Amino acid sequence: MEKKILIPTNFTKHAWNTLVYALNLYKNIPCTFYILNAYEVPVRISLKRNHNAELEAAKAESENGLQKTLQGLNFRKENPKHKFETISRNKDLAEAIQETIDAHNIDLILMVSRGENVSINAAFENEISEVTEKVEHCPFLILPEKMQELPTSKREIVFPTNYKFPFKNKEVAALIDMAENLNASIRILYINSDGRPLTKEQEQNQEALKTYFSGVDFSFHKLTQTTETTGIHLFTESRDSNFLALYKRKQGFFSKLFSQRFKEEIDFNPKVPVLILKELE
């Protein structure tokens, strides 16, 4: 089944590396890659003529940049399974992404975070946290800035949960797809901070994950006497895991990892790519 992948670009080398990463991630899968450039020109009411000229210049720069990106992709001629479409929008980035998701039924958004880590906490006011907060109905894969190549072996995705909320199959579909594409294992991590046994509801939610993940390699793991952030960090580092998957629920487990209110107590900046799964209706 063909996948539809959205890759916002600002024409930097890191944006290009994200695109190449996506091509490798889906090298065996038929895909249409939507390459989006969003630009904004501030409106100056008293200088309408100048504004129109600035708008036309920004539009031309965006379209030329997208054309050069296509030329670079055509030069590579890597995969007959891959198709490309370009989109230029005079909009806020989050608005442009949401519009593209709604229009094209996008399966996954790939973006790059500045620096060696993936900063997803809204308290730090970066583009990634803002976009992932605003955009709905589509998962994100966020790459560290220097991440260029896929791991060649022992591919492993850590998926933390406390089992307190049920998952819908479609909410973890992107995680299953990634495991299948990469031939990766999913390590389901339960962080039992309070030392209590699982409730009946938690056990049912755990059983549901067994059903959802039946087609891929997975295993269950548990850590005690630690916090969520410390536990995730220690588990990922100790196993040298390649990816982290987080479920971004509006309320509940891990919502604070994305929240402005926890700026002082959380330093959560993973060094591996982070798959952000969204709560779906």
Automatic annotation (TrEMBL):
UspA domain: residues covered: 3-117
InterPro entries for the chain: UspA (IPR006016)
Domain of life: Bacteria
Stored Pfam families: Usp
Gene3D superfamilies for this protein: 3.40.50.12370
Protein known as: Universal stress protein family protein
